[in-house]
């Protein structure tokens, strides 16, 4: 199978020939380079109409010289997302070429192509994918026939966020490489002599993130006379730490142990260094494709086009309309069949019941305390020590302030939420310099484990603390788990809905309400806890308020719901019933306005 691919979503007019038998790819590109500022859509479209036919002709000539007149088996093109006028030029070129050669046409989603090229090159079976491109930024994972969006930018794409600053400074597109060069002058020695860091907004919500604040803050810093190199350095440190953090959270949520990078910003050495370091620290494999496959190029379109064509996934000319807002999760993944979800099954990921002494989450290590730890506390309390460990990938000043702020927020909000009637652990101790909390042990496993249906196992915590009756209880709870896990999951998500409604009623958002941060089952009710009259095995706790904050904004409340639903739909089988139960639980105690806003958040295309 030999496929001619055409790309031209925004700035890069490109054609490529991919030979699937030999896995070789020839790419011919002609970038649009504005004289000043960013991409001008009209100029970009003009560039495409001149350059696309030229690059196509070059590749076609080369193909026919090597393979003869039947060189091409299919023509693949970028259908979207991208700038409408540019896409139309590409679409027209692809249709007429497919017609002239009398071969099938393949419509490729540009974003899926950005991630599939990494999977293709690395040979990873089921990675989490970080797309760091100009107009987009998202985390994707394969689940149930689609690439699900695990997390994404709430406003600008990562490249655009950086380019917004470089435009302000008067540098031309693309700004990314210029920021990288300027930042390198400050140095990336993050050891004892780490370069100073300007404080900039750092916004992550679960696996979603926002760049609008940081672009403006960088512009303001420039206007205030801060040296441009220092701003570039600080901008990179913040933006890439955010991307690395959400990637780690996605690995943790799904239990995946492979990460691939895609998109033009992926050419940045500092981003690759951070991702590689994060993956190494958690024992995950990392792959960043060759730069010629990271920036926009037709090679990735031809490679995915060949996989799609081989699967019979071609389109009729009359159905080949371009789509400027084409989202990656709209694409039926025809070229990977009957594969397991990126969300791994079973206990080995730590998503099931607790069977080890230490559990490593995305940002903290949680150690279950010894019996001796209970001194000075109610004598039936089992405790956990939760320590936010330093992350070697991020700048030490940023690392310190994130760990400190989140520890303080978690201690405060966990208690405030509890007073608002939300089931949360008791906070026994806070050690801010060590970023460590001592908390009541709650629940029996996390909701992620319950949704995945991981085999329950006897908890060994009770054995260690010498309470055989607890171990028996835990064993029986596990058995009951197996009986009707789905019903339990439905009851649990409904309870989460109620918890979030009460939390929001108290003017607090959780900030990261993923299925990992819900603990279910086990634990007797204590005197000061809300008694909902139900079975203790159905008890549902919210934990990890480190990203929480006070807010009365409907939008912030709706984001909490969006994050929770995202974590359910990306990992559970048949998530519809769960989402419905969750919203029902919320509706009973919460504001209708928030649910209405949730629909809006879901509906609106969030890329600009
Ligand atoms: C829809 C499509 O047109 C769009 N493509 C796109 O934006 O081109 P891409 O090649 O994936 O990414 C370009 C971005 O990548 C940035 N970039 C390139 N080299 C960089 C570097 N060394 N450091 C940081 N950013 C870099 C550029 O500044 C620019 O913002 C997309 O994928 O979102
Ligand atoms: Fe791109």
TrEMBL record:
Q: Which Pfam families match?
A: TsaD
Q: Where is this region: Disordered?
A: 451-486, 506-537
Location within or outside the cell: Cytoplasm
Q: Where is this region: Kae1?
A: 1-335
Q: By its UniProt entry, which PROSITE patterns does this protein fall under?
A: GLYCOPROTEASE
Q: Where is the signal peptide?
A: none
**Where is this protein primarily located?**
cytoplasm
Q: Which residues bind ATP?
A: 358-366, 386
Q: Which residues form the Gcp-like domain?
A: 28-302
- Name the chain's protein: Probable bifunctional tRNA threonylcarbamoyladenosine biosynthesis protein
The species this protein was found in: Halorubrum halodurans
């Amino acid at each position: 199978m030999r496929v001619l691919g055409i790309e031209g979503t925004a700035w890069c007019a490109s054609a490529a020939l991919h030979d699937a038998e030999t896995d070789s790819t020839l790419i011919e590109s002609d970038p649009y380079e504005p004289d000043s500022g960013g991409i001008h859509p009209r100029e970009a479209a003009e560039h495409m109409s001149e350059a696309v036919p030229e690059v196509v002709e070059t590749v076609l000539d080369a193909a026919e010289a090597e393979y003869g007149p039947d060189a091409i088996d299919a023509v693949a093109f970028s259908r979207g997302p991208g700038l409408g006028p540019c896409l139309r030029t590409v679409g027209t070129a692809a249709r007429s070429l497919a017609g002239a050669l009398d071969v099938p046409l393949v419509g490729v989603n540009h974003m899926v192509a950005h991630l599939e090229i990494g999977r293709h090159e690395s040979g990873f079976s089921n990675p989490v994918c970080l797309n760091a491109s100009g107009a987009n930024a998202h985390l994707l994972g394969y689940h149930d026939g689609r690439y699900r969006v695990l997390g994404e930018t709430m406003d600008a794409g990562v490249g655009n966020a950086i380019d917004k600053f470089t435009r302000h400074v008067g540098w031309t597109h693309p700004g990314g490489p210029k920021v990288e060069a300027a930042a390198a002058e400050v140095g990336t020695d993050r050891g004892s002599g780490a370069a100073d860091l300007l404080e900039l907004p750092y916004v992550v919500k679960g696996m979603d993130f926002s760049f609008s604040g940081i672009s403006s803050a960088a512009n303001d810093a420039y206007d205030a006379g801060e040296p441009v190199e220092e701003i570039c350095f600080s901008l990179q440190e913040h933006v890439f730490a955010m991307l690395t953090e959400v990637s780690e959270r996605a690995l943790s949520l799904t239990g995946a142990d492979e990460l691939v990078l895609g998109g033009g910003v992926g050419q940045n050495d500092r981003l690759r260094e951070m991702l590689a370091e994060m993956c190494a620290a958690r024992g995950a494999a990392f792959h960043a494709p060759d730069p010629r496959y990271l920036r926009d190029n037709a090679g990735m379109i031809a490679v995915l086009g060949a996989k799609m064509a081989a699967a019979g996934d071609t389109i009729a000319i009359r159905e080949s309309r371009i789509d400027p807002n084409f989202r990656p999760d709209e694409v039926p993944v025809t070229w990977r069949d009957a594969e397991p979800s990126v969300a791994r099954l079973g206990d080995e990921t730590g998503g099931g019941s607790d069977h080890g002494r230490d559990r490593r989450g995305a940002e903290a290590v949680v150690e279950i305390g010894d019996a001796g730890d209970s001194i000075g506390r109610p004598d039936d309390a089992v405790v956990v020590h939760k320590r936010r460990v330093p992350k070697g990938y991020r700048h030490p000043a940023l690392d310190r302030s994130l760990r400190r702020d989140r520890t303080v927020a978690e201690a405060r909000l966990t208690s405030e939420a509890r007073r608002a009637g939300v089931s949360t652990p008791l906070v026994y101790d806070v050690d801010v310099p060590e970023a460590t909390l001592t908390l009541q042990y709650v629940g029996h496993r996390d909701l992620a484990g319950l949704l995945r249906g991981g085999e329950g196992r006897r908890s060994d915590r009770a054995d260690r603390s010498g309470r055989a009756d607890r171990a028996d209880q835990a064993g029986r709870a596990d058995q009951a788990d197996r009986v009707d896990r789905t019903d339990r999951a439905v009851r649990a998500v409904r309870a989460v809905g109620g918890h979030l409604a009460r939390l929001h009623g108290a003017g607090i958002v959780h900030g990261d309400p993923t299925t990992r941060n819900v603990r279910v089952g086990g634990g007797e009710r204590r005197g000061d806890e809300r008694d909902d009259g139900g079975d203790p095995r159905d008890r549902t706790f919210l934990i990890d308020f480190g990203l929480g904050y006070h807010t009365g904004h409907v939008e912030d409340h709706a984001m909490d719901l969006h994050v929770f639903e995202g974590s359910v739909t990306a990992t559970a089988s048949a998530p519809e019933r769960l989402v419905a139960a969750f919203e029902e639980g919320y509706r009973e105690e919460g504001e209708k306005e928030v649910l209405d806003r949730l629909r809006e958040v879901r509906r609106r295309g969030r890329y600009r």
